[in-house]
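User: Hey, quick favor. My workstation is busy. Could you predict this chain's structure for me?
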Amino acid sequence: MSPVIVDARRLLCPMPVIRVQNRVKELPPGTRVEAICTDPGALSDIPAWCRINGHKLIETRTEGNEYIIVVEVGEES
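Assistant: No problem, here it is.
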């Protein structure tokens, strides 16, 4: 299954994590969400949000000027 894409480019903290949070609320557990961000703060904000809210951080990577963060929705979204 392809991940759900959250486009958070050109958004500054805390908007990338808020975009991911709002999308995750609509998804069943086990769904993967791929956030595409340009704010480097998202590399720490989204993983911290995952730990607090019971979601699983799958991957973080940098592609040019973009940061890709892949999250798996946990049981308590």
